[in-house]
User: Fold this.
Amino acid sequence: EVQLVESGGVVVQPGGSLRLSCAASGFTFDDYTMHWVRQAPGKGLEWVSLISWDGGSTNYADSVKGRFTISRDTSKISLYLQLNSLTTEDTALYYCAKEGVVGKGFFDYWGQGTLVTVSS
Amino acid sequence: QSALTQPASVSGSPGQSITISCTGTSSDVGSYDYVSWYQQHPGKAPKLMIYEVSNRPSGVSNRFSGSKSGNTASLTISGLQAEDEADYYCSSYTTSSTLVFGGGTKLTVL
Assistant:
């Protein structure tokens, strides 16, 4: 059974930083592109970032480019998102999602999300 | 990276059919057959309903179908049931190798 479990969400002040983690199980982690998607309270889904199966390629939404960094660790079977220079606009539930087929851009499994609140 | 355009809300009675549109541009929906649809119930994670325009994952009812014409994709739900009431989001791969979602559509089953 595929499982994605996010952690690391906290309340942080504007300008602060934190790292989100996503522990994966139930599939061959190394074979799949992984994504982060976020959802602000009461709002829609927003794609944030992706990392290729081998970590060699990454991409970001314009809204987070230069502030967020995605990475993965094969030995820990985990996905990460480093969030820097946070603003209140970054307050959201952050989901980790597995891409169903490499390069096809759809998410077949999602975690339950971890909540990031940016507030002073 | 502008969001895809979806109607904010649609509604239908049990047994009826509804269609949700998803309009993009030649840089996303119009460029690839990589449009997917997600269902989200309140407080739950999104669930994949359609991928690559018209494919249904195993376990998704055949009452859900997808199509695309030009820069607009569509999700049709036939034989509406109470449990279909949820938010629906489309998504597309883009020519910038990013992904983009629609703003979401709230489906109300009357």
